[in-house]
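> call design_seq(struct)
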């Protein structure tokens, strides 16, 4: 039951739900995520930590950067992705995420 509590706590924040939407199609560094928000780096770090502790995102160190991505197998992320598809606020964020993913693939 403790894990469910962590998930609901993580999803209770508008910023954290938007972070999940930005990560919906591609992984991103903390710096790339920060470009979308007007919050301090320690605050963003705390949001990412809460999402990671809830099992919604995972991080991987690549060179000098830490990349964050969705934990695709997490049922909560599947449900959240569905809700983002029908939510008018999240739709443009997901579109931006897909475009960013296309840009990363074409530059590889």
């Amino acid at each position: 039951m403790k894990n469910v509590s962590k998930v609901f706590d993580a999803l209770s924040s508008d910023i954290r739900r938007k972070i999940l939407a930005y990560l919906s199609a591609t992984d991103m560094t903390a710096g790339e995520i920060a470009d979308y928000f007007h919050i301090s780096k320690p605050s963003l770090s705390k949001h990412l930590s809460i999402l990671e502790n809830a099992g919604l995102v995972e991080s991987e160190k690549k060179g000098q950067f830490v990349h964050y991505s969705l934990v695709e197998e997490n049922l909560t992320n599947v449900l959240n992705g569905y809700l983002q598809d029908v939510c008018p606020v999240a739709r443009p964020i997901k579109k931006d995420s897909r475009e960013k993913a296309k840009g990363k693939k074409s530059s590889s």
